[in-house]
Amino acid sequence: MAAASEALGDPSPQDFVYGEEDFVLQGTGWGGEPGSAPSRFDRALLEGWSDRMERGLFRYRLGPLPTRVLPGPMSLVAQLNVQRGTERRPPQAVLSLRQPFDPRAFNFTRMRPGEVLLRLRRAADEGGGGGGGGGGGAAAPDHLLVAINVSPLERGHVLLLPERGRGLPQALTAPLLRGGLEAALLSAHPGFRLGFNGLGACASVNHFHLHAFYLGRPLLVESAPAQPLCPARGLSLLRDVPAPAFLFYTAGPAGLEALARDVCRAAEHLTDTGLAYNVFVTRGDPPEGAGAGAGRGLRVLLWARRPSFGAKAGAAFNVALCELAGYLPLPAAPLFRDITEAEALRAIREHLLPEPQLLRLGEDLARLLAG
Q1: CB 304 within 8 Å of CB 277
Q2: Is 211 among the residues known to form the active site?
Q3: I want to staple 188 with a disulfide (CB 3.0 to 4.6 A). Which of 24, 34, 178, 324 is the partner?
Q4: Whether the predicted pLDDT of 130 surpasses 60
Q5: How many other β-carbons are positioned within 10 Å of the β-carbon of residue 306?
Q6: Strands, DSSP E only, in 188-296?
Q7: Which one, of 242, 190, 209, 200, lies nearest residue 115 by Cα?
């Protein structure tokens, strides 16, 4: 595979300079309205992704994937992806919620140059750059690399990578999340989602990154109404979904900095209390639900969970950000054919906190953000 890709030449990443005029504020609805054409960002990402597939830079060739919605109120989306289950790189050993970066282990500095599709940069006169990997600010990084995930879940599955050379461990920071939120607004597709798997929460590489992918199905977490916890900071509790989560919301670009900062403060609090976490970003309705009449903005879900180190023997599937959101990439045809909503929910929820502990944690986060 490597020899074939070298024979074809190694493509260079495309510089993608954007400003606020490139943000798609409402995106495309699932019914195809409004603005149903792909955005400039969608075209650049998907054209580059398809080019790398033709060049043989992935571990396997991804064709159409069998997909079905499981009967039941949660509308779980099951998808059969046998090759990801068998051919992806084995996850790294994670032993701690604060495990340092190990330059000897696989990391994203070892990518082939052709795996990088885009270099996202804010227009020079727009601000929003200058953020590094730490500190209290939430300015987006100076640039963000968009690279293929060589073991893709779906068409367009990529990684967002800031400052590869710094060797930052997999711990979410406000600048990275801010960059991811801006990438979400650059897409016009209703199924463009982003997410973060923390250490002890199915992160497979301990090197700072976000996942992003396209899934052509709606998920309940986009529309379910939430219970207010700290309205002044946009914090709610999303309960009637596959995996109860803390929900943060912003109606548009003006709220991105505060949103990124608040999510990361909450995530750091979870780590301080010995809990792992996953994060999911999607277009969605306001916390009050679709009837609020305010259009769609960005929903950010934060799941608190018991840390899990190493693969669980006998588990039907790993429970990471996709599964928590209600999207189940499954590795075997019998499982895909036979799994029920009840079975999937049992597997997902065994990683989460009991409801009384979740509610106490919500009170703690509300006090933290209001202070």
Answers
A1: yes
A2: no
A3: 24
A4: no
A5: 14
A6: 192-197, 210-214, 227-230, 235-238, 245-250, 276-284
A7: 209
**pLDDT greater at residue 309 or residue 285:** 285
Q: DSSP of 98-166, one letter per residue?
A: TPPP-TTS--GGGS-GGGEEEEEEE-GGG----B-SSSS--PPBS-EEEEE-SS-SSTT-EEEES-GGG
Q: What angle do CA 169, 173, 176 make, to 5 degrees?
A: 95
Q: Given 157, 189, 207, 209, which residue is catalytic?
A: 209
Which residues face 159 on adjacent strands? 147, 211
CA angle 9, 12, 13 (to 5 degrees): 145
Instruction: Name the nearest CA neighbour of 238 among 202, 185, 288, 298.
Output: 288
Place of tokens 């976000």: 210
Q: Tell whether omega for the bond before 218 is within 30 degrees of 0, i.e. cis.
A: no
Each residue of 229-287: pLDDT tens digit? Answer: 999 999 999 999 999 999 999 999 999 999 999 999 999 999 999 999 999 999 999 99
- The answer to pTM > 0.85 is yes
